[in-house]
Amino acid sequence: MKVSKEILNLVPYKPGKPISETQREFGLSQVFKLASNENPLGSSPMALKAIQAHLKELHYYPDPTHYDLLEKVSSFWKIPKNQLSFGNGSDEIIDLLCRIYCEPGDSILTSEAAFAAYEVSGNASRTQVQKTKLTADYKMDLQAMSQHFFAHPEQKIRLIFIANPNNPTGTYVNKDEVDLFLQKLGNRDDVLVVFDEAYTEFVRAQDYPVAFDLFRKYKNVCVLRTFSKIFGLAGIRVGALVAPVEVIEIFNRVRKPFNVNSLAQIAVIAAMQDYEFIKNSQQLAWSGLDYFYQELKALKLPFIESQGNFVLFDTLRDASKVDQALLRRGIILRPVKNYGFPRHLRMSVGIENENKAAMDALHEVLKEIPIDGKSNHN
Fold it and tell me: How confident is the model at residue 24 (pLDDT cuts 50, 70, 90)?
């Protein structure tokens, strides 16, 4: 059977290395994983309690309308229910938006070093993926994106994905940049602007624009949120789409009726009410980042200040060598060569002893591996 070139050229998503695999490969009893931006506190205790109470009802299909979930999330975020829907993680929502709004020969637009799912979903839907370069300070360049859109009408760009904050860089686009961008591209009928706010709860920047305020003003703005990060529910896969009514109506026609399982729906409802867990997760991320910054400065390693729960830093060396040496010491970080950073590693915030173990191991490894003569201390 013939397979399209877009599918054949897909590069499978490579997740963070599992703890069990690292233990087997290097014969280790203790391994710390700081690679996948997971919540080091685990899952919300209230969510776990809700899941436990629901286990006897697993023989029933989940509510296909997400009724209770819609009620609670709508109230929590102050979003009308008819402008809200859910997916099996944000990945499914991204995939469905590409399928709904793009035809073969159309394009999506994003940035270099953006979340890999945009490109995977775009190509899988036989759509061309257009990318603009990052700015000198590793931010998505909204000015370049708007210029690209207007300079290339032949590309038929239907979706623009803006990760804010972005993973893996941890950078964000500020309110002024977003306002200027939407003055040019807001309220158009031929393109949707999708703000992916997976890490929004970790943001400390004062000029960060919460996209919930934008979708009310612009009829072509959509917002993605996830329950994987701050709520610690990565394993049950729930993402949210906030969008204009007509987008939600079409999305609900296309999504599978049971795309969010019953335990996931119950867990999210409980987790959103666990204010203490949310606060503790934020504080842990912020204190962990400050510790990383302090240690990386001592090592004279350039890093990018992050608005997520991770930091991207320059090893000044071939990052694959540093990564392997850390793995032998039981530390899993995330290589990001596939994002265009061959010398960088991404390090998620863990609990205090995990963070210290990672930095102690990094101190040792850097003594063994010489600095790349071509390194640029940016």
Answer: confident
**What are the start-end ranges of the H helices in the chain?**
5-8, 19-26, 45-54, 67-77, 89-101, 116-124, 142-151, 175-185, 212-215, 245-254, 262-271, 275-298, 319-328, 352-368
Residues 160 and 228 grouped into a single domain: yes
C-alpha to C-alpha distance for 164 and 308, rounded to whole angstroms? 9
Strand partners, 85: 241
Q: Over the stretch 194-249, which tens digit does the pLDDT of each residue have?
A: 999 999 999 999 999 999 889 889 999 999 999 999 999 999 999 999 999 999 99
Question: 157-163 and 341-348: which strand pairing?
Answer: unpaired
Q: Does residue 122 form part of some domain?
A: yes
Backbone angles phi, psi at 190, to 5 degrees: -110, 5
Same domain? For 164 and 193 the reply is yes
Alpha carbon 173 to its chain's center: 15
Q: How far apart are CA 248 and CA 122, in angstroms?
A: 20
Report residue 376 as tokens: 């640029």
Pair (238, 307) in one structural domain: no
User: Is residue 360 in some structural domain?
Assistant: yes
Domain count, the chain: 2
Backbone angles phi, psi at 209, to 5 degrees: -90, 115
Among 244, 184, 178, 239, which residue's Cα sits nearest to residue 211?
A: 178
Give the whole-angstrom CA distance, residue 341 versus residue 352: 27
Whole-angstrom CA distances from 186 to 12, 151, 158, 315 are: 33, 17, 13, 40
Say which residues have a Cβ less than 8 Å from residue 117's Cβ, sequence separation at least 6.
13, 90, 91, 94, 95
Kindly state whether residue 297 falls inside one of the protein's structural domains. yes
pTM over 0.90: yes
Last residue of a domain, one of 271, 305, 331: 271
Partners of residue 258 on adjacent β-strands: none
Determine the structural domain holding residue 189 and report its residue range. 58-271
End-of-domain residue from the set 271, 295, 316: 271
Question: What span, in angstroms and rounded, lies between the C-alpha atoms of 47 and 235?
Answer: 12
CA torsion angle 259 52 30 355 (round to 10): 80
Same domain? 66 vs 162 = yes
Asked whether residue 355 is assigned to any structural domain, the reply reads: yes
